[in-house]
Amino acid sequence: MKKFTVIIFALVLILGMTSCKKKVEQPVLPPSQTMELNDNNFQGNTSEKVEGYGNWFSAAVTGGFWSAIVKVSFAIPIYAYKHALEQTPQKVDNSTWLWQYNVQFMGINHHVKLYGSVDPNQDMVSWEMYVDDFNWFVGENNVAATEGYWIFYSKDAQPKEKLKVEWTYDYSDSTGTAKYIVVDQDANNYNSYLYYGNNLDGLYNCFFNIVNTSDTSSVEIQWNNQSRVGRIKSSKYFGDQAWHCWNESLQDCQCPSSK
User: Fold this and answer.
1) pLDDT score at 175
2) Measuring CA to CA, which residue among 248, 232, 249, 229 is closest to residue 240?
3) Which of 119, 138, 250, 255 has its CB 3.0 to 4.6 Å from that of 56, i.e. a possible disulfide?
């Protein structure tokens, strides 16, 4: 009888421990804004500096360098990820989901696999994306998908970490930040970064803070994504630490007295 009681107690204890396990929910995909670089205010012809537009031009050239790193080097994985937001995943095991689908990019079909694994003990989600069996990026964020990071790999003979994006996102007003960091230790601009945000108050609601380690230069850019007015501060371009502004037509103008 005593042995039977011990067995019953053990079964009750096991069932109790099982029932206390945290239920694992399907992970939330972070918005595509967490990896896209929004430089729409600086789109245009920057191949030739036009007199009277020098301030905007300097900002556009600086943003264009980073746009090339992000939009050209990692166009395929970013494009593929945006399509994951439209897919329904399948559950692989108790804590892992798989988004599997095909996309066509530049006339070429690609097979995509995006794995999302939840660690309920740490309230974290880990990500891995494969396009045609190449692991383009990994990532991690909190379960609420309000902060995290992505790490992109170079598609070379020996793939290595190329770019890290540390991001935050506020769903209440669709604002956030993203810091793009060069993590390729062989690059001459290793540890250079562009820090982007669209959460400022006042006349300018967006910003770029840029540091280039190859020449130790820094640039600050602020603009309004509706009116397109903006300003730039760079001793590299202007030889001073003053703000240099442009108006709604992107023409150079005197900076407003208010911030």
Assistant:
1) 96
2) 232
3) 250
Amino acid (1-letter code) at residue 139: G
Distance of alpha carbon 234 from alpha carbon 194, whole angstroms:
14
- CB atoms under 10 Å from CB of 8, counted, come to 10
Q: SS3 of 5, please?
A: helix
The per-residue pLDDT for range 25-69, each reduced to its tens digit, is: 999 999 999 999 888 888 766 555 678 999 999 999 998 888 888
- Whether 213 and 190 have beta carbons less than 8 Å apart is answered as yes
pLDDT band at 16, cuts 50/70/90?
Answer: very low
Report in angstroms the alpha-carbon separations of 140 from 10, 47, 71, 115, 214.
Answer: 38, 38, 21, 11, 29
Q: Of the candidates 126, 129, 145, which has an alpha carbon nearest to the alpha carbon of residue 137?
A: 129
- The closest of 103, 151, 102, 128 to 27, measured between CA atoms, is 128
Angstrom distance (rounded) from CA 203 to CA 146: 26
Q: Which two tokens stand for residue 101?
A: 């689908």
Q: Give the Cα separation of 112 and 28 in Å (integer).
A: 18
User: In the predicted model, is pLDDT for residue 13 greater than 70?
Assistant: no
What is the rounded CA–CA span in Å between residue 158 and residue 134?
12
